[in-house]
Amino acid sequence: MTFTKDMKMADLIHKNYLLLSIISRFGIPLGFGDKSVEEICNEYNVNTYFFLDIVNSYSNENYITDVQHNNFSIHSIVRYLRKTHKFYIDQIVPEINCLITNLYQNCFQQKDNVKLLLNFFDEYKNELLIHIKREEDVVYPYVLNIENAYETKKISKKLVAQMKNYSINEYLNEHSNIEEKLLDLKNLIIKYLPPTSDYKYRNKVLAKLFQLENDINDHSRIEEKVMAPKILEMEKFLFSHFSIDKQNSSDE
User: Fold this and answer.
1) Which of 68, 95, 116 is the last residue of a domain?
2) Can you tell me whether residue 148 is helix, strand or coil?
3) Which structural domain, as residue segments, surrounds residue 85?
4) H helices of 153-252, where?
5) Which residues, in sequence order, are CB contacts of 251 under 8 Å at separation 6+?
């Protein structure tokens, strides 16, 4: 189903409890009463249509953004994406690491196989952190500068040079490797982890990995389907209206 602005906010969680972590990234706490999505979003100064795009894309990978109401800023998108990174780093990745460690400590047969899983997750975690750092240090500052140049109709020579050497299209090709690694990690548990391993911890690990996968897929869809098209249009406008030698470009 597709969530709408007139639905009760509480009903979203009843339909998909995993939205709890998504809703919290908007700074919206529990205690909705019977208020609608629109009422709660207005109460917490959240763009209703951006909120709906996020929760709908998270719950339905085939969801198509409402172009008519797609008027939210790149800044609001980046703010949400950064809170998602914080959720990965501070919460779900440490939880998975703890569960795998417990699985290793409670496994008394074929311990080497579980150790392999722990090592594999460490590798994945490091790659994820590198990916996050690149987005935080390179991609997000770039798209925010693009938005600022587009809105102010002023562009620095530094940004023009960046645009010629880097496009949002290049960034879009960087997601697949992280997602493939996560699939390999899940398959290691599903297909190859010995049945003698503690099934309680194993199932908890797997459930958390599926949650992380779903969240990362949603994160990527927001970047690819919502943020990137906006930036592509802005880049196109800036390329057609400015050059590095333009007199009114600033030297920031």
Assistant:
1) 68
2) helix
3) 73-241
4) 157-165, 168-172, 176-187, 199-221, 228-241
5) 156, 157, 158
For the CA atoms of the chain, what is the radius of gyration?
A: 21
Whether residues 78 and 53 share a domain: the answer is no
Question: What residues contact residue 7 under an 8 Å CB cut-off, 6+ apart?
Answer: 36, 37
pLDDT of 195-231, one tens digit each?
665 677 888 999 999 999 888 888 888 888 788 888 9
Where is pLDDT greater, at 109 or 245?
Answer: 109
pLDDT digits (tens, 9 = 90+) for 71-107: 788 999 999 999 999 999 999 999 999 998 888 887 7
- At residue 241, the pLDDT reads 80
Same domain, 51 and 103: no
Letter string b/e over residues 192-223, b meaning 16 or more CB atoms within 10 A of that residue's CB: ebeeebbeebbebbbebbeebeebbbbbbbbb
- Strands (E) located in the chain: none
DSSP 8-state symbol, 223: I
Determine the Cα–Cα distance for residues 34 and 178; give it in Å rounded to an integer. Answer: 39
